[in-house]
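quick one, 394 residues, struct below
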Amino acid sequence: MASDSNDGVVAGRNAAGTAEGRQVWYLALVCLVASLGGLLFGFDTAVISGTVEAVRQQFGLNELLEGWFISSALVGCLAGAAMAGVLGDRFGRRPVLALGAVLFLVSALYSTIPRTFGVLVVARLLGGIGVGIASVVAPMYISEFAPPRWRGRLVAFYQLSIVIGILAAYLSNWLILRWAGGHDGSGAGEGWWHWVTVREYWRGMFGAEMLPAALFLGLLALVPESPRWLLQAGQTTRAIAILERVSGPAAAAREAEEIQVALAQDRGSVFELFRPGLRRALLVGVMLSVFGQLSGVNLVVYYGPKILMAAGYEDLGALLGQVGFGVINLVFTILALLVIDRWGAPAAAAGRDGRGHRGAGDPRGLFLFGVTEGGGAGAPGAVVSRVVGLSIGG
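---
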């Protein structure tokens, strides 16, 4: 009898461990898919750096048009970010992420095949809209899925994916130019492959984005809608079923109740950002954005190869140098993520500053996070969302 009892205990523990393992893997899949939005964010932002000189020569651009070519995606990003929240609340997080994936895919395709500069700019604008959508909805989707104990780390993983996307763009640019240099005089013909990877290699650099964009769009079919949005839309049964897959049956009911209470309060307001407990956090985030731009980091993101060529590097060496910049960015982002919880946790874990105000956090950790990820566009926004978002958004 005792043996049977012990066997039952062991079997129960094994079953619990198996269930928890499935929950972890399911959550990992969801967050990995959403983080592809961050990778595309970084890739689309950085890929243009390897194409500037070739596009300028191809279309005979002056300095003004060259600047418009580079900044057109940023204009689209503003539009995408402005509409993403409204679309996400109206139609759900996953459909809006799918829209972003489609925009990335269409942008990459039409940036590869344009015959005119105007078509190329429109394609870049569409890609920028996709960037804006991803920058808002993807971290929102992750945070609404993640259990509270993992939420900060998983949202930080999205920031890491942006930096990985930047490095991937630099690396693919260098590989394509290397391929073009090795096959330029090979007499391989005038087919479309030779056209986009050798004769006008900048087309292949843009076209490389179609691979992660198509992967992102396909994988979105494997993940569900945000449980928070489902509860907001009155689809309680579906929401609880998803929460059970993430947290288990016992925790799912409790989390669903907490979300519904937060939704019922509906206390989020932009004016709350200026109350005493949040003003400092808002100021930290805004100043990180300001000083990040004043540091000139985006100048390197967009014009790094051009700067290196002006310093005497040949084109392939300049793109390899840009890869080096990307590696440094990735290394220090990882270091920041390893210490952010340790440096920022004492105040942020309780969600209070020394005076008991909610959400202010510890600016030492926030500053490190923002400075090291400044080249990964979006870090200051993550700082504000970490210390402010849950306080005013339920």
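Residues 100 and 130 are 4 Å apart (CA to CA).
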